[in-house]
Amino acid sequence: MKKNLTQAYRDVRQYTEQLCKPLNVEDYVPQAVDYASPPKWHLAHVTWFFETMILQKHLEGYEVFNESFNFLFNSYYQTIGKRAMRAERGVMTRPTVGEVYQYRQHVDVYMAELLAGEVSQELEDLVVLGLNHEQQHQELLITDLKYVLALNPMAPVYRKDSNLVADHNADSEFEWLSFGQGVHSVGYQGNGFCFDNEQSVHNTYIQSFEISTSLVTNGEYLAFMKAGGYENFNHWLDEGWAWVNKFEVKSPLYWQEVDGEWFYYTLAGLQPVDPDAILSHVSFYEANAFAQWKGCRLPTEFEWEVAAPGLDWGKRWEWTSSAYLPYPNFAISEGAVGEYNGKFMVNQMVLRGASVATSEGHSRLSYRNFFHPYFQWQFSGIRLAK
Amino acid sequence: MKKNLTQAYRDVRQYTEQLCKPLNVEDYVPQAVDYASPPKWHLAHVTWFFETMILQKHLEGYEVFNESFNFLFNSYYQTIGKRAMRAERGVMTRPTVGEVYQYRQHVDVYMAELLAGEVSQELEDLVVLGLNHEQQHQELLITDLKYVLALNPMAPVYRKDSNLVADHNADSEFEWLSFGQGVHSVGYQGNGFCFDNEQSVHNTYIQSFEISTSLVTNGEYLAFMKAGGYENFNHWLDEGWAWVNKFEVKSPLYWQEVDGEWFYYTLAGLQPVDPDAILSHVSFYEANAFAQWKGCRLPTEFEWEVAAPGLDWGKRWEWTSSAYLPYPNFAISEGAVGEYNGKFMVNQMVLRGASVATSEGHSRLSYRNFFHPYFQWQFSGIRLAK
Amino acid sequence: MKKNLTQAYRDVRQYTEQLCKPLNVEDYVPQAVDYASPPKWHLAHVTWFFETMILQKHLEGYEVFNESFNFLFNSYYQTIGKRAMRAERGVMTRPTVGEVYQYRQHVDVYMAELLAGEVSQELEDLVVLGLNHEQQHQELLITDLKYVLALNPMAPVYRKDSNLVADHNADSEFEWLSFGQGVHSVGYQGNGFCFDNEQSVHNTYIQSFEISTSLVTNGEYLAFMKAGGYENFNHWLDEGWAWVNKFEVKSPLYWQEVDGEWFYYTLAGLQPVDPDAILSHVSFYEANAFAQWKGCRLPTEFEWEVAAPGLDWGKRWEWTSSAYLPYPNFAISEGAVGEYNGKFMVNQMVLRGASVATSEGHSRLSYRNFFHPYFQWQFSGIRLAK
Amino acid sequence: MKKNLTQAYRDVRQYTEQLCKPLNVEDYVPQAVDYASPPKWHLAHVTWFFETMILQKHLEGYEVFNESFNFLFNSYYQTIGKRAMRAERGVMTRPTVGEVYQYRQHVDVYMAELLAGEVSQELEDLVVLGLNHEQQHQELLITDLKYVLALNPMAPVYRKDSNLVADHNADSEFEWLSFGQGVHSVGYQGNGFCFDNEQSVHNTYIQSFEISTSLVTNGEYLAFMKAGGYENFNHWLDEGWAWVNKFEVKSPLYWQEVDGEWFYYTLAGLQPVDPDAILSHVSFYEANAFAQWKGCRLPTEFEWEVAAPGLDWGKRWEWTSSAYLPYPNFAISEGAVGEYNGKFMVNQMVLRGASVATSEGHSRLSYRNFFHPYFQWQFSGIRLAK
């Protein structure tokens, strides 16, 4: 296991830096919106996690790389002390990008030293948590970067060749899968890593339902738009309708109409909308309105979990109709690690699956992602149920 | 049934006016906050419901009392046309209070005429819906009025003798009731009236749990406050902690500290906090934080529904840990009536039970009340589970 | 002088109540916007001034009518203690309107007693200040009332017969009066009452200028509107242009277009815009943009003061191009009275003249009114200069 | 003259780049607050001015460097077309810093070509305007950079050796200079360059006054702070007092208290406050409150202009008590150049003099700088008058 852990550490850490290869120094700096962070911050924050949660506690004599970094790169953990305001991440010109890479290298050297010695179960668990944490930030790094680049009227290209651009359902035939009612067991049931919010396998009663084998495409969503979907309050939740009007939303994020044709910004630049590609970057409000317009609904997270083994999933985070709430017997861990998930269990909706931006090896049937219903900036899509 | 309906109509309508007996003309006018409405508006809006949904459609030759009222007293129904901004209800000095009472009388006369004739099932259903609607506004009238009067440094008295002031648990002994796991049937199962959001009885799997027989008292909550409950982020959801800090919340609504003693505004004026009385006017954030501090949690809405027959309930709206979501097979009705409940099924939490301000005959085991987690102005309290 | 003072007191106080004759109780309550106040508040606040500044200090043994009123009806005076938030004046349902009139009567009785005795110069000065203060609030009472009534879709009538509705230039011939350059003396030069901000007569150098004998009419302003005045940034100050766009301003306050015709709300109800009547309810931004479009400019306050004896003035508050700043040797008085004017000498523009809503006997050539450049709710108009 | 112009062009352009020598690439990117801009933007915007106002019009066959730059680097000029939102300058990662330097070089090459040919008076005037414009941005580049670096808890150093850090009055003796009343001529009277807002020499009548020979020091201001200056409303304009309370202002910008000692961020890093150095980074509200506390006042802009030849000035922008208004006969130029100054003549105060950050050769006795009264981020200080 130890060798695997060392290798896993190396792989995850290298993948983060590989994602940054196409960037200019300038790209590392800005924060376009308060819920997104600069690449520089992601690079440092995941490193800070290893330094603070692991090296400082488990490697004797370890000296922190820079005392200020605890303040600058603590994302949320209130237990650990003061932290920079989330909204000010984009004004921190120092440390420089070069210094952040030095920081990463410094921590990697000592992590290698630590992992070369005896590794307790507790330590292994923490390292695995740190790696999963870094994988989460790999996805955020991509989605946050897309947000910044999309604001630039020059529509800069991140990578020309990428599955991040546009992809399609495995099978273009639309089908309904049916399930009868009954008690099902849900929650993480394996022996590997999972987050605390997936734990405690438990029974749930599911009514009979049908679920679509494919995700909604751009073309299907365009039909909704052309049918006046954004102008008819009947399709929308009251709060969704207020959101549409306040922000004058007329399309998924990154879409723009030029002379009657729809284009969208992709990480390969501005492109005409491909009607056969899978829809992305919609909010829960939009997903729900589209489903209602179709005379369908979104699946619950447990319907999804039960049905998923028979579905082609992993291309979009799929909005469910379930609010993000604790599982029975959910217990908040002691200390800073306990602030990971439980603090956010109100006013968010569960997304299931994974997306084209999710790192390899970071998806599970029981995985519970969650965002506020108005967020569009993830690679989020729609699967219908009824 | 017809006689009963006429009588029921008369009873409900009169009770609304009885609630207003202690008011001065000035009290009918202001709107203290955008989510509360002036008494004058409540009086007229419930009347508008009968006029627009019933008289205009079912009483031939009926002439509306005043064309402007549709605009002024439509609360939400987007189907029915333009409506005044919710936040401007308090600046409408006309119609006067006297004119609003004339409006009520006008509608009552024609409703009596209508109900004296043949009453179809459809009509009866609409009248019963209108009466339940008016009962909901009876409670809102009281809670909104309390909000306005409480802002006045003169602490005006609404009624000296009232169960609205402070009340106690039936039994002062605290006890846990235990329930085993298994499948239960939930939802409205009777033959009477219920709202669309309670409909479609269905199975749900409930894990084993314990629930308290009594509601949390002011004294118990004071202990939380004295233990620094509002200063320790560990007890709070992240969003709750932000709410505490942004609004500098230090106590339930209407509480104020004077020279080290806690007082609260009640509808009988300013009074010292009674430690044995049942706690009221807490938000979901506070309820959840208190429960966490106690090492407990809030019950789910289905745990509550299963346990309630054995509980003393009806004194406070009890925050549950359930988000307000549609039941399986929930269907939105056609037309304006369909805008009643379904539009609000996101970002709100379910409260179960009823309160001292709830009108008689307007409570059920299956009743689902719902509010945003930051609202304190209802008579809302806490029951613990674990 | 004493007899005159008693009579003056009586006259001013009665005129306030006469203005309120056409009101319903409901009209006294609401506050439509934070810079306007309810009639009830005006009635009480001017009375509080006499009670606090005069009776409590100069009438031995005087007992305050109600201790809470100091908190409720102190408008600004920070010296005197806590005061209710300005924005919450409309939610105070108590004291009732009846109680406020009792308060007025109470104070009037004791003021009569006080004025029947020996009246020192200091006391006389304070009474005269109090009366001028009440006259200012008489005008505000009208303008604030108009704001509230105008929001009501029923367009209620305050008074059918009134010079407040629409009026015309004395002479419909437009003329330019010319003045040569030179040193002029400005500031209040008489022996009567004036505010501190008019005091200290001093020299000023005025360049040669021309000024219009008549005020701009609705018809002239309509020409500006029809020429696209609100759509062309060239006419506007940068801040004015931002104001136009943020609030989507398309006309003076109270104007609305119905099927291509312009109407305006007046205190006699909704009426078609009279092109020959004098324009009212424009902001400084609009006044300045109109002048620029005309190839003219607004007069400075000193140009106005020098030219006014030859003009027909008193129908509109006339926006000048002068910022509201202290005169040389302006000194802030000691104590609460000193908070009257000097505190506001930044970011406001001077208006000269008087309006149809100004109380008789409350206007002077040296009078300096002042408002933020975005305010439209006074009877404010435009006189051109070049 | 032509040779001089070429040389002047070269000098000013080089000085801008010299100011950027100490920067890292990261420092060029962020925008800390909407009224400040990133160094990258300043570098490009001043270049855009030469390209758009001069090369495109006066150099035949000139091809723009990049079409997108007009959108990205137009600061205000509404005449010229769409422009990026001011608040989004910090999220534009492209063009890169390297590309911006290429842009500068490109424009410099063609400007050199243009200036090597025949230079009309109109062209010369535009070039001189462009150079003065660039000098203004040199100062803004420094003040905006200071704002960003100061937010960084690492307190980065820009330059260790700099007059930008702390400087002193030429003569530590405080003295009053006296002036009698009378008519004075003000406005720019020379033959060189001046802005449109200084033009049209005209008479003004000045009352007798006294003015201080030295600027207020940190030590003097600390005395105000220690006397409770920020806690006593009596010293403040009403709007200033609201500003103090809303933003919890307790000191000049960049000051922080650490264990009872005051430090300030300077461009050489964090340093203890030097009581003998000249006070900097105060708002007009603070300047006015300090003066009032001292029993003095701020000079008017004309008092300053008359007295300045006898004063040691040029170290701080000195707040005056004059609002920024047009001079008599001020005329807005035709076209885009006309948007330079006149658009901003409302709600701003005049500052006179120059500061340690002002570029050499960019100061005059008649120079009128202007900012909103709440701005602290310029090197602004206080000179007393009475």
Q: Which spans of chain A of ≥5 residues are poorly predicted at pLDDT below 50?
A: none
Biggest β-sheet description of chain A? 4 strands, mixed
Spatial ordering of strands, largest sheet of chain A: 10-9-8-11
CATH class of the largest domain in chain A: Alpha Beta
Describe this structure in words.
- Chains A, B, C, D: Pathway: Amino-acid biosynthesis; ergothioneine biosynthesis.
- Chains A, B, C, D: Residues 182-310 form the Sulfatase-modifying factor enzyme-like domain.
- Chains A, B, C, D: This is Ergothioneine biosynthesis protein EgtB.
- Chains A, B, C, D: Residues 9-140 form the DinB-like domain.
- Chains A, B, C, D: Pfam families: DinB_2, FGE-sulfatase.
- Four copies of one chain form a homotetramer.
- Chain A is of the alpha+beta class.
- Chain A has two domains: 1-151, Four Helix Bundle (Hemerythrin (Met), subunit A); 176-385, paralog of FGE (formylglycine-generating enzyme) (Alpha-Beta Complex).
- In chain A, 34% of the residues lie in helices and 13% in strands.
- Chain A has helices at 2-20, 39-58, 68-73, 97-116, 121-151, 218-226, 238-246, 284-293, 301-307; strands spanning 176-179, 182-186, 202-206, 209-212, 255-258, 261-266, 269-272, 317-323, 349-353, 369-371, 380-381.
- In chain A, strands 10-9-8-11 form a four-stranded mixed sheet. In chain A, strands 5-6-7 form a three-stranded antiparallel sheet, with no helix packed on it.
- In chain A, strand 6 and strand 7 (269-272) form a beta hairpin.
- In chain A, helix 1 (2-20) runs antiparallel to helix 4 (97-116), helix 2 packs parallel to helix 4 and helix 7 crosses helix 8.
- The longest helix of chain A is centred in the middle third of the chain and has 31 residues, at 121-151.
- Chain A is globular and about 65 Å long.
- Chain A starts with a helix and ends in a 5-residue tail after the last strand.
- Chains in contact: A-B, A-D, B-C, C-D.
- Chains A and B meet through strand 3, helix 7, helix 8 and strand 8 of A and strand 3, helix 7, helix 8 and strand 8 of B.
